[in-house]
Design a protein that fits this description.
- The complex is a heterodimer of chains A (867) and B (250).
- Chain A is built from 30 helices and 32 strands.
- Chain A has 867 residues and is α/β, with parallel strands linked by helices.
- Among the domains of chain A are: 184-463 and 691-698, Dimethylsulfoxide Reductase, domain 2 (3-Layer(aba) Sandwich), CATH 3.40.228.10; 730-866, Barwin-like endoglucanases (Beta Barrel).
- In chain A, strands 5-4-23-22-21-6-7 form a seven-stranded mixed β-sheet, with helices on one face. A six-stranded mixed β-sheet of chain A has the order 28-30-29-32-27-31. A four-stranded parallel β-sheet of chain A has the order 11-10-9-19, with helices on one face.
- Chain A is globular and about 80 Å long.
- The two termini of chain A are 19 Å apart.
- Chain B is of the alpha+beta class.
- Chain B has a single domain, classed as Alpha-Beta Plaits (2-Layer Sandwich).
- The longest helix of chain B has 10 residues, at 18-27.
- Classes of the chains: A alpha/beta (867), B alpha+beta (250).
- Chains A and B meet through helix 1, helix 2, helix 3, strand 3 and helix 4 of A and helix 1, strand 2, strand 3, strand 6 and helix 5 of B.
């Protein structure tokens, strides 16, 4: 940070571009004669056209128009009709042209010629040879036990073809990147409310937003990767006077758009949310009709923490349990929850000599000690500010009000929380449950202007599953699904690495033998780097589908298959912005460069070699089932499909005249506005899809009991509590010299590893750095640009890890916190080198650094030393 | 005759730099050259810190100091207000760079193919050349080398020849076709607006009139055509953060 005067300020960028005075040079030598004539002629001969397609970089598949000259793409621009990006693009969208024309892409299939665990040496191979080799190594595993074939993905852009058809046709075990993202947030929303997603606001109607974490202008969030949320947020500010409270250790995420900044300590979000809950109760900002009717707040809980239930009806199917009982104030006695006229939310009742209380009464008692003063101390803020936020949130919720939307009168609660990657913390699942509870207290879930989750109020299959969490006895499969360790299991590749290092500890008998990596590069991308370096050499065979030689491919691939970037068919993808629904397909902007190919074609060829392409249960049938393609549009099971034809059939089946030509012409199929009866939980045919919102997590407690019964250590069961319960995060046990919290965050110019392969984006984003408050820097003897060593400490094992980076002073971060973008750390293609380390090298995975749902935490205590 | 102007709504800008990237691709500028530049800044001290963003294209002054100092008439202003550089005439003396108070001028020190090599990618790679005809960068648009406007001078994008000056042209090649500049077109949050400021009914005139704003370094008498709305100019306490790289491959 350099102080500059107003006049010099605007000149600084040109000066930075390298104006070392070379006065003697500028009029002499090296000057070119301007030669525009040849180019002019060239331009006259060129044929210009455009291709409609979708973004390949991000997750939201923005609509793109590619301008071509004689088939060569010269520009990517936003497609006007696409609801998600409305004719615009983010820097990544524009810059992906650099990925298309990257000479350092993998050009041919590669076969390894040296030992693994070191910089790879490869020879070029034909597609036939490479696919034959993969098939030869995969077939015996499929015959022995297909579950030992691990298919691991980063981002998949055509789930029906990859996650569904390929995984089902082969019987492989699928592992996503998920739990490195915001899965704890998904699980919390599925558990408490039902829909699949992480909480986001109804921007068209909301007036007051708690923007929690670093996503809002830095990385989008739930369901979108960026453009859509910022557009809606700004429109809401302008049209509705939306107020934004940024709750994050850094101000940068909301920047000038924050009306208030509440910099709380990293990983203390649950304490903050619980204090908000307590204050809302104290202030009586409670939507009692909602709590009584749509949540389990009235359910009576016995001394064992379980619901009091009616007897199991005689004709009940095996395994069903009786209906939870409530105390009906109208009759003065108990009644099944769906039969009571006026269920009590508070009080204590003696039923059959046992004192029972409504869940809500227990919640009141539970949060009684979570005072603003208590939370202020933990969060590093003041009690006044917490009270003020609670009061504003409660008041702005306008409890009791309604609004007519699309002709339907719906409860109106114009307050919401936007949270996404802040779920990536040790207490993430329960922290998000606490935040959802804040919204529940005022009746905001599914209300107009209130707390939304998915783009439509559709209940996830997990909601029912979570009623009875399976906690089985070992041995467990290697993902630890249904285990006593993680009864709710998001599937964390880091935990798999831990399991592979010590299967006995996790009661796992069979480990995966071979792995196929689909657009995933765990070594630099995931925490913790060391665990992946220690693990991927254990696979008998590693194949990688990637456009670049990723670091994981470099060290561990036996075979690398070069995939196309934007030069392929992929999809279909949602084009919805939550208000307008639509569908789109990625269309090739040109033929694949080099010998690269689209993944769908690759899987078709591979399945043919594996003998799982044709016939019943084969890949083709799975495509029919999952895309889906029905009736006369279904693919014949005995004929190798053509990818364009598959999408053509799908388009026709959806009723689009001209089939895929519809997308070639229009780029996007707009299905129309999402009606209020689909968006708002209160307004769905059966309100909230019939899901009872779980303020009280009985099944979590049941799982805890079962975990204990099976001898699981406390570290696994301690957060399976019915109500979100604060405890000090593990990292606080690190010695006091680790005086700073490290958090990582996303840069708007970067996304997954694929963006750091694009120098055009690195140019904009800069390289790795350590954000540090000037006050902290001064006390550590550091100044802007200093080389530093950041050393992290694992409070469980005592292990330390170090990376070197440079100081970037920022007054917009808490003095007790330092930040690093979580990109970079690559070494493999030349254009990815030298950008600095990945913060994932500093993070730990496993006990203490994952949530109770096996999601990664991105918080650790560090110290910063002059480098 | 239209008079072109740009309006930057600082209350919408998110500092994402999409405009910088769209400019780079549209105008094929080499590494480290930003005809459009977005400052990301901090001011104040924790916890009363402010974060702001300030996109800065060429201010397209109506009283352009760069035009006055150009000894060869290479820097000139069109009737529609756009200040351009005639690359055929420019002798690379850099007087314009010195005269401009906004720091928007760039001198081409190296041949484009050398400058693009800083991106750490070898665009001379034969497999790429086979797909691009050997053009550098591979997305190069030769149409930019056409003579522009009624004045028929070489003023748009892509030559980037050694020894000449260049800067933002308001995307003259697009404006002449009735399109908005690339930065305006791409802006994901519609913070940038462009149009004829002399037409009282044009959207930009309506927009500018409705908002409170300032111009950069207005006191210097340059009379810029870029209006900044709903924000404040950088002050003495403003510090730049997150500078882009000027040398990616170093």
């Amino acid at each position: 940070m350099t102080e500059i005067t107003r006049r010099t300020f605007v000149k600084v960028s040109a000066a930075a571009a390298g104006t070392t005075a070379v006065a003697s040079k500028f009029l002499f030598g090296g000057l070119e004669t301007v030669q525009h004539t040849d180019s002019l002629l060239l331009a006259q001969q060129l044929q210009e056209d455009t291709v409609n397609t979708t973004c390949w970089i991000g997750k939201q598949d923005c609509g793109i128009v590619a301008t071509r000259l004689d088939g060569r793409v010269i520009k990517l621009e936003g497609l006007e009709a696409h609801p998600k990006n409305r004719g615009t693009l983010c820097p990544k969208g524009t810059a992906q042209i650099g990925a298309v024309y990257d000479p350092q892409r993998v050009k041919t299939p590669l076969i390894r010629t040296n030992a693994k665990g070191q910089t790879g040496e490869f020879r070029a191979a034909s597609w036939n040879e490479a696919l034959d080799l993969i098939a030869a190594k995969t077939k015996p595993v499929l015959e022995e036990n297909p579950k030992l074939f691990l298919w691991q993905k980063g981002r998949s852009k055509a789930k029906a073809f990859y996650d569904k058809a390929f995984v089902k046709a082969t019987g492989a075990t699928k592992l996503g990147h998920g739990a490195y993202c915001s899965d704890a947030g998904y699980r919390a929303a599925e558990y408490n409310l039902g829909p699949k997603g992480v909480i986001h606001p109804d921007f068209k109607e909301t007036r007051y937003l708690l923007s929690w974490g670093w996503n809002i202008t830095a990385a989008g969030g739930n369901k979108t990767c960026w453009i859509t949320w910022p557009q809606q947020m700004l429109d809401a500010k302008e049209k509705n006077g939306l107020k934004i409270v940024q709750i994050d250790p850094r101000l940068r995420p909301a920047g000038p758009h924050a009306d208030e900044w509440l910099p709380i300590k990293p990983a203390t979000d649950m304490a903050f949310a619980l204090a908000l809950c307590r204050e809302l109760i104290q202030l009586d900002y409670l939507d009692k009709p909602y709590l009584k009717k749509h949540t389990n707040s009235p359910y009576l809980v016995g001394p064992d923490g379980l619901f009091l239930r009616a007897d199991v009806p005689a004709d009940a199917e095996e395994g069903t349990v009786g209906k939870a009982l409530v105390f009906d104030l109208a009759t003065g006695g108990t009644a099944p929850f769906d039969e009571a006229e006026d269920p009590a939310l508070t009080g204590a009742y003696v039923i059959d000599d046992v004192t029972v209380k409504p869940s809500f009464q227990l919640f009141i008692e539970h949060v009684e000690g979570y005072t603003p003063e208590w939370a202020a101390d933990i969060c590093g803020t003041t009690a006044e500010r917490i009270r003020h936020i609670a009061e504003e949130f409660g008041r702005q919720a306008q409890i009791g009000s309604t609004k007519v939307v699309d002709g339907v009168e719906i409860p109106y609660r114009p307050v919401g929380i936007m949270a996404y990657h802040m779920a990536q913390q040790e207490l993430g699942f329960q922290a998000l449950r606490a935040m959802i509870t804040v919204a529940m207290l005022v009746g905001a879930p599914g209300a107009v202007g209130g707390q939304l989750v998915d783009f439509t109020w559709k209940i996830s299959s997990s909601y029912d599953k979570y009623e009875n969490l399976a906690v089985n006895e070992g041995p467990y499969d290697y993902t630890l699904g249904k285990s006593k360790f993680f009864p709710i299991n998001s599937g964390l590749p880091g935990m798999l690495a831990k399991v592979m290092q010590d299967p006995q500890k996790y009661e796992v008998e069979e480990l995966p033998k071979i792995v196929m990596l689909h657009y995933v590069n765990p070594i630099p991308s995931f925490a913790s780097t060391k665990d992946f370096l220690d693990t991927y050499g254990m696979f008998e065979f590693v194949s990688v589908l990637t456009p670049w030689l990723s670091e994981t491919a470099d060290y561990f691939a036996d075979v690398v298959l070069p995939t196309a970037t934007m030069e392929k068919y992929e999809g279909p993808s949602s084009a919805s912005d939550q208000y307008i629904d639509g569908k789109t397909i990625r269309l090739p902007v040109m033929d694949p460069l080099f010998e690269s190919r689209g993944e769908i074609e690759i899987y078709i060829d591979l399945c043919e070699r594996l003998g799982v392409l044709y016939g019943e249960g084969g890949y083709i049938e799975q495509v029919n089932k999952n895309l889906p393609l029905k009736d006369e549009f279904a693919l014949p099971l005995d004929k190798k499909p053509d990818v364009r034809d598959i999408f053509d059939r799908w388009s026709r089946m959806e009723g689009l005249e001209g089939g895929i030509e519809y997308f070639e012409k229009n780029g996007v199929w707009i299905k129309g506005p999402v009606p209020a009866t689909k968006r708002y939980g209160y307004a769905t045919e059966i309100p909230f899809g019939g899901a009872v919102h779980r303020l009280y997590g009985e099944s979590l407690l049941v799982a805890q009991n079962k975990q204990k019964e099976l001898g699981a250590d406390e570290v696994y069961w301690r957060d399976y509590t019915a109500l979100p319960t604060w405890r000090t995060p593990t990292m606080e046990a690190s010695p006091s010299e680790y005086d700073l919290y490290l958090l990582s965050y996303k840069l708007i110019e970067q996304k997954q590893m694929r963006t750091s392969m694009i120098p055009l984006l690195t140019e904009l984003s800069g390289k790795q750095r350590l954000d540090i408050n000037p006050e902290t820097a001064a006390s550590h003897g550091l100044k802007e640009g200093d080389d530093v060593v950041v050393e992290s400490h694992n409070a469980v094992t005592g292990e330390t890890r170090q990376v070197r980076t440079v100081v970037a002073l920022s007054s917009a971060i808490r003095p007790d916190t330092v930040g690093m973008p979580h990109h970079f750390g690559g070494w493999s293609p030349k254009n990815n080198k030298g950008l600095g380390p990945s913060s994932n090298e500093l993070y730990y995975t496993g006990e203490g650094y994952v949530t109770c749902t096996a999601d990664q935490s991105f918080h650790v205590k560090v110290r910063v030393l002059k480098g | 005759m239209a008079k072109y102007a740009m309006a930057v709504d600082l209350s919408r800008c998110q500092g994402c730099r999409a405009c910088m990237e769209a400019c780079k691709i549209e105008n094929n500028t080499p590494q480290g050259v930003f005809w459009m530049y977005v400052f990301r800044t901090e001011s104040g001290e924790y916890p009363n810190t402010k974060v702001d963003f300030l996109p800065r294209p060429c201010q397209q002054c109506n009283n352009p100091p760069c035009v006055k100092v150009c000894p060869v008439g290479a820097r000139f202003q069109r009737d529609d207000g756009i200040v351009l550089t005639d690359y055929d005439r420019c002798i690379g003396c850099r007087y314009c760079e010195v005269a401009c108070p906004y720091g928007v001028n760039y001198y081409n020190w190296r041949k484009p193919e050398e400058a693009f090599a800083d991106y750490n990618v070898d665009y001379k790679d034969p497999d790429i050349a086979a797909a691009t005809g050997g053009l550098i960068p591979p997305y190069k648009n030769p149409a930019l080398d056409r003579l522009q406007g009624t004045e028929q001078r070489l003023t748009a994008g892509s030559a980037h020849n050694v020894g000449v000056m260049e800067k933002c042209t308001f995307c003259v090649q697009r404006v002449d076709k009735g399109l908005d500049p690339a930065c305006v077109d791409v802006c994901p949050v519609h913070a940038l607006h462009f149009g004829d400021i002399e037409d009282a009914n044009s959207p930009i005139s309506q927009y500018v009139n409705r908002q409170t704003g300032f111009k950069l370094l207005e006191e210097l008498g340059t009379d810029p055509s870029v209006f900044y709305l709903n924000g404040t100019p950088p002050g003495s306490d403003t510090r730049e953060i997150e500078r882009p790289l000027t040398e990616v491959g170093s």
